[in-house]
Amino acid sequence: EAAEFNEEDKSDSEEETVEDIGVNQVRMIADELVRHYGSPRQKPDRNGICQTFSWKDMAILIPSRNKILRNLEEHLRARGIPYAVHGGVGFWQRQEIVDMMHLCLCLSQPGNDVALLGVLRGPAIACNDADLMFFHYLGGRRLPRGLSILQSLDADLEKACEKGKLQKLPPQDLKNLKSAWKQFSQEDKSRLVNASAKVGLQGEWRRLADRMSHTDLLQRCLEESGAYQRYASQHDGEQVIANLGQFFEFLRLEESKPGSSLARVANGLQQRAEESIKDSQAAVEAEGMNAVQIM
């Protein structure tokens, strides 16, 4: 059996608030679960015996994880009805969502090297292993520093970098870097310089953090970099674009709250993602439990 929440808009003549409607729906669904629990099935099993409904035979389908879900969980606990939540499993682990999380964290937290690496390898910058190794050695084996040194496409590496920044590099590292720079194609060099210009410590995208809408900033990053086109060209591109749209809805909701700096919003979304993982793990562990499934 599956109960489904209906969140259709009510007519203007109705006096109930959305919250009241949610509570009433929760109460009715809980009543139905209790009514079915222990009642006989209509069809007998393979042995000809009519089994009764247990909690694990029932499920509740909800379209989104919002306030109604919280009301539902509270009411089920109050009624002593065991349940396991499955809703939202997978969304926060999708690669495009991880990419957006990395972008939020990278632009708002200059010292977050993990997020920086995720952005560099993601579709917004699209660096390869050779690019990352180049930045690593260019910065004296500190990738973030190397990313902030490179400034232009000049054929002479020392002129292409911030003045005087290569002087303390080990001679062999500097020799190897100059050799690699000469071997890079113009396209390779453009990609490297673009990475520095966008997400270096003084990069353009970093400077725009908290100076414009967080959603507008991330969308600008995707548009300027051509990441939208890369996402859309994937085999499940339509789903990817839809997921990005849902992520931006979450982002708009978070940044509408007071004191919503990008760093604070990024931490809030990261916490939501971690909670989703916990819910997913709990759901897997609960598969053998006698509990109503919330999906």
Can you put this structure into words, describing what you see?
The protein is mainly alpha-helical and 295 residues long. The protein has helices at 18-36, 67-79, 95-108, 113-121, 129-138, 143-149, 157-160, 171-183, 186-199, 204-208, 214-225, 227-232, 237-255, 262-285; strands spanning 2-4, 59-61, 83-85, 292-294. It has a four-stranded parallel beta sheet with strand order 1-2-4-3. The longest helix has 24 residues, at 262-285. Residues 2-19 have low confidence and may be disordered.
List the helices and strands and how they pair.
Blueprint: E1 2-4, H1 18-36, E2 59-61, H2 67-79, E3 83-85, H3 95-108, H4 113-121, H5 129-138, H6 143-149, H7 157-160, H8 171-183, H9 186-199, H10 204-208, H11 214-225, H12 227-232, H13 237-255, H14 262-285, E4 292-294
Parallel strand pairs: 1-2, 2-4, 3-4
Helix pairs in contact: 1-2, 3-4, 3-14, 5-6, 13-14
Q: What is shown here, in short?
A:
With 295 residues, this protein is mainly alpha-helical. The protein is 57% helix and 4% strand.
